[in-house]
């Protein structure tokens, strides 16, 4: 497979960086092709601005202006480079530390600037409805999240005080990856990262290698398809009747 490793951690001597290095070696040993975006090392600009689109209007409308710039090939060069990587990839590995229940701002800014209208969303099907939630423009790609947390392992368990990790990451897993059409694999949590011993690091690296070895065959999270299970923006009455909350959107 062709794999893009999207990495967002500021410290090259961190556990995250060590795991990234172990993952890159594992992928090479498995015969995969690899490209990387190390956002902090790149000095990635996470801030959307009119300069991204060459917008000449008095009022910036990000969706409209990004779509026009994408269609005309006039997006900023750094955005086009990242889109080329993503277009090339069969699989995206996204690795980051969980800060305030979300990714670092630099990674959020990568999604904001790279996944523009016309490229990752806002593309209509033949019936005019948008392709999204399982049928988006990035269909056929897989997404795998590697996330470090400061919490001990039970904290992000289904009954943990922080909430189930899949629920905490719902905006990323469902709202970014699945929305754009990707098949989404269950995230790998590396817990208590700041307290990890060398033995812990070796154990986590082995867990990562095990997951990487099976990425092509792993069953994705069974999110419900918008076209199959929804009317308008609501689940059909016959789908998961009486069930509410995030679990209602899982097959």
TrEMBL record:
Q: Which SUPFAM superfamilies match?
A: Flavoproteins
Which Gene3D superfamilies does the UniProt record give?
3.40.50.360
Q: What class of enzyme is it?
A: oxidoreductase
Q: Does the keyword Ribonucleoprotein apply?
A: no
Q: Which residues form a coiled coil?
A: none
Q: Give UniProt keywords alphabetically.
A: Oxidoreductase
GO terms, molecular function: NAD(P)H dehydrogenase (quinone) activity
Enzyme Commission number: 1.6.99.-
Q: Provide GO CC annotations from the record.
A: cytosol
Q: Which InterPro entries match?
A: Flavodoxin_fold, Flavoprotein-like_sf, NAD(P)H_dehydrogenase_qn
Q: Which residues form the Flavodoxin-like fold domain?
A: 1-210
Member of which family?
Belongs to the NAD(P)H dehydrogenase (quinone) family.
User: Could you tell me which PANTHER family the record lists for this protein?
Assistant: NAD P H OXIDOREDUCTASE-RELATED, NAD(P)H DEHYDROGENASE [QUINONE] 1 ISOFORM 1
> What is this protein called in UniProt?
General stress protein 14
Source organism of the structure: Actinomadura rubteroloni
